[in-house]
Amino acid sequence: MTFLDLRSMPSGTRLTADLVIIGAGPAGLTLARELADTRARILIVESGGETFEQGVQALNRVENVGDPGKRDTMALSRGYTGELAWLNDVPPFELRNRLVGGSSHTWVGKCAAFDEIDFSERSWVPGSGWPMPRAALVDALDRAAEMLNLGPNLYDASLCRRLTSPPADLGINVDLLRTFFWQFSHGRGRRGEPLRFAGFASDMQAGTIDILTHATVTRLIPDESGHRIASLEARTLEGASATVTAGVMALCCGGIENARLLLASNDVCKDGIGNARDVVGRYLADHPRTVVARFDRARIAEIAEHFGFYGLTHGRATHFYLRGLALSPRLQRRENLLNCAAYPVQTLSADDPWLALKRLRGNAAATRWRDVRTVLSDPGLFASGLRRRLIMKRGLPRKIDEIRFDTMVEQRPNPESRVTLSTRRDRLGMPLARVDWKIGWMEIASVARLAELISAEFWRVGLPQPRMESWVLDEDFKRAPFSDMAHPACTTRMGTDPATSVVDPNGCVHGMAGLYIAGSSVFPTSGHANPTLMIVAMTMRLADHLRTVLQRPAAAEVRAAPQALRK
């Protein structure tokens, strides 16, 4: 792969490729990587460069007119801790990374696959149902897990049979609550550091792929018929422009920008590309997050023992899974609830020995001597910790001030929750995205029911009772505080009916030949799980389809090499 920089090219440059991928985040780089062994000339167009640049990041600004700011309740952060705590201060729907690698620069690597029920058409969830069953994605999910350096794609109680030292059976009623696991993606050879997709760009050896940086796409241009994509316009912050022509384009810009770019491309299609039925930008979903329960120090070790990390060996590596709880599918059907899960979050003490050791390894001079004393104060803790980690494959024993249970819930498809265009414009003259995110009663009721069941079942089986949040105890749904989790989805949703979807089951925009979309924006429903594993799997599925598309004569007619600019 060769890096090009639009800032160093003459304004008005014209480029041509077989496939143009817009966005060099997880979806865009996965698509390029999967097609690297083809003959297709591929050009990736990225708004940023290889490092964070404040001017480019400012293009993420939105006009937010909906939740969570619209709710008459206390503010709630996204729940990030430690080195990523600054992410809590980024305004809703602006936590996106414009650089090679995209939002993988600020994720924690948390992954899980969607559940069977997420793909089902549910009578109590209007607009639910995917155009394929979960079984159709098993192969893609396994390929995605391998790419993300994950263990087996098991996230329910069946995983326990594979764990080296599984959690005890607590006797929780599985008709109400089920065990749910998450795992974490790590870079190869860099345990503890989340996978950064930028490495795929630098490691890709394909001579048929180029990446154009500092090139923000401001407009997609159909041909005169308005039914086939023809070219795009890209600009630098300094005002230089380029036109890129291709027979096939893949929009991989995320849940907000995919919709924004389609709506702003209204020169030929007056309502925006793919928006003849006014669906682009609708059904905006995220993962409403809140805290439902807290456990103090008195019996905190007991909760940490049952709801922590559990490991297994797979592919010569140890993979750790975090245990939490979710509403059972039977309960969801019986009580008309949404899919919802709770996971433990530990607040570490400042004098936690393992935290002190991590600071020492990082050469934190300001706290060095205090950290040395902390590490030396309890040598037995390290001996027991190594035994738990290396032999039992369990999480390390930590000194904890508090454990809380956070929840994330899927959203009912709501066409009034949406992205439109603002009258305000960014530095490049593009309308800002106007975001009207709506959190409904079904979402809040599902979270409240999960919280209620955790308290009741913990009491029944003899686990410590949590301190429940006041809005849960008072059933004051209007005061329930939520944050977004920077997981925007469903704004260009997939389906067979153009009246309720933007792309077909292959990811092609209805009525616009040659234009495809990848990423969470094509999800018909959002599930409760973090989206990256599903994004990668769905993108791999799209790559399988594009292998055939790129062999057709229509794509061959525009075959030319972007590297001609480097002569």
Features:
8-stranded mixed sheet; alpha/beta; flavoprotein; FAD/NAD(P)-binding domain; FAD; oxidoreductase; flavin adenine dinucleotide binding; FAD/NAD-bd_sf; 567 residues
Question: Explain this structure to me?
Answer:
The protein is α/β, with parallel strands linked by helices and 567 residues long. Among the domains are: 1-64 and 196-286 and 412-435 and 487-567, FAD/NAD(P)-binding domain (3-Layer(bba) Sandwich), CATH 3.50.50.60; 350-393, no CATH class. The protein has helices spanning 26-34, 54-57, 138-147, 198-203, 257-264, 300-306, 329-335, 353-361, 368-376, 379-392, 441-461, 470-473, 532-549, 553-556, and strands at residues 2-5, 13-22, 42-45, 62-64, 110-111, 177-184, 186-187, 190-194, 209-213, 216-222, 229-235, 241-251, 289-295, 309-314, 317-327, 340-348, 400-409, 418-425, 431-436, 467-468, 515-517. Helix 3 (138-147) crosses helix 13. It is globular, with a radius of gyration of 24 Å. Mean pLDDT is 91; it is low at 555-567.
**How many β strands by DSSP?**
21
Main sheet attributes: strand count, strand direction, barrel closure: 8 strands, mixed
Poorly predicted sequence stretches spanning 5 or more consecutive residues:
555-567
Report the helical percentage.
10-25%
Q: Distance between the terminal alpha carbons, to the nearest Å? A: 16 Å
CATH classification class of the domain at 1-64 and 196-286 and 412-435 and 487-567? Alpha Beta
**Count of helical stretches:** 14
SS content category: alpha/beta
The CATH architecture of the domain at 1-64 and 196-286 and 412-435 and 487-567 can be named as 3-Layer(bba) Sandwich
Pfam families: GMC_oxred_C, GMC_oxred_N, Pyr_redox_2
Keywords: FAD, Flavoprotein, Oxidoreductase
GO molecular function: flavin adenine dinucleotide binding; oxidoreductase activity, acting on CH-OH group of donors
Cofactor: FAD
